[in-house]
Specification:
- The structure holds 2 protein chains of 2 kinds.
- Helix content of chain A is 69%, strand content 0%.
- Chain A is mostly helical.
- Chain A folds into 2 domains: 120 residues, Four Helix Bundle (Hemerythrin (Met), subunit A) (Up-down Bundle); 42 residues.
- Chain A is globular.
- Chain A starts with 12 loop residues before the first helix and ends in a 7-residue tail after the last helix.
- The mean pLDDT of chain A is 84.
- Chain B starts with a helix and ends in a 13-residue tail after the last helix.
- Chain B is built from 3 helices and no strands.
- Helices cover 80% and strands 0% of the residues of chain B.
- Chain B is mostly helical.
- Classes of the chains: A mainly alpha, B mainly alpha.
- At the A-B interface, α1, α2, α3, α4 and α5 of A face α1, α2 and α3 of B.
């Protein structure tokens, strides 16, 4: 089992690309959390999601990568920007974006990261994924969804309809609860 | 190999968690929740690769759809709160506190 683990001294092309994408993802995620401008946080989120889509591509999950670009970068970030505008958030620099519990939050985050990284490294040290392309194509995923996951898929479509109606009812002012 | 992806996922999850705890604007809290969901998706896809089947990727796809629905309803709630209280700060929405 151990000889399957590649050496750190001779990284493959996949690992180099993954390291670059991972550095971009972590850096932009840190900027989302620390930037002083709300709109910049949304834009750094685009960079982070794009880097994650690149990670999915390296993992040969093409369909998930493109859905990530379509849904997250295309729809969710646009919705968040609309939300920023609709709530008349401060567009320029603002210094009161962080609440007072910074120290507690830092301690919790470091503890979470330490526990997760320790468990993951300890549990999956010798795990190795053989990355051959072509397994995560839309055709393969579509076949699996409509063969094995039909009921969750249908439940999800009903959930989307419910979310749509809920958002309309919540945001219209002329519909009032009795 | 797999470990690198899982460590990246854990780091992104922690960054999202610290954002949820430290940020004051409700929409930035939302962004950080999305970050945590994405970290989980990365772990799902990694495990799907490791086990050589597609179920993890399908779950990641479902998580994305649920996240989209969550953002739609959440933004509607935030806009409604903003309309009544003139503020999108989570510190001001404290009616549920004693």
């Amino acid at each position: 089992m151990n000889e399957a683990v590649p050496s750190y001294l001779s990284p493959t092309g996949q690992e180099i690309v993954f390291l670059l994408l991972g550095a971009v993802a972590v850096g932009s995620a840190l900027l989302v959390v620390t930037t002083k401008q709300l709109v910049h946080a949304a834009l750094w989120l685009v960079v982070c999601f794009g880097a994650l889509a690149g990670c999915y591509l390296v993992l040969t999950a093409e369909f998930v990568a493109w859905v990530q670009v379509l849904i997250y970068v295309g729809a969710i970030v646009a919705l968040l920007l609309f939300g920023i505008m609709l709530t008349r958030a401060p567009i320029g620099r603002s210094d009161d974006l962080d609440s007072g519990n910074r120290v507690v939050a830092a301690i919790v985050a470091v503890a979470t990261a330490a526990v997760l990284v320790t468990v993951v490294v300890d549990g999956f040290r010798t795990a190795y994924a053989d990355l051959t392309p072509g397994r995560g194509s839309a055709e393969a995923l579509g076949g699996s969804i409509f063969r094995n996951w039909v009921l969750p898929f249908e439940a999800l479509s009903v959930l989307l309809l419910a979310a749509l109606i809920g958002a309309i009812v919540l945001s219209r002012t002329d519909i009032r609860g009795r | 190999m797999t470990t690198h992806y899982l460590v990246l996922s854990a780091l992104l999850f922690s960054i999202g968690a610290v954002g949820v705890l430290v940020r004051r604007n409700a929409i930035v809290v939302f962004m950080c929740v999305e970050l945590m969901l994405n970290a989980c998706n990365l772990a799902f896809v990694t495990f799907a690769r490791q086990h050589g089947n597609l179920d993890g990727q399908i779950i990641a796809f479902f998580v994305m759809v649920v996240a989209a629905a969550e953002v739609v309803v959440g933004l509607a709630i935030i806009v409604t709160i903003f309309r009544t209280r003139r503020s999108a700060s989570v510190d001001d929405a404290n009616l549920l506190k004693y």
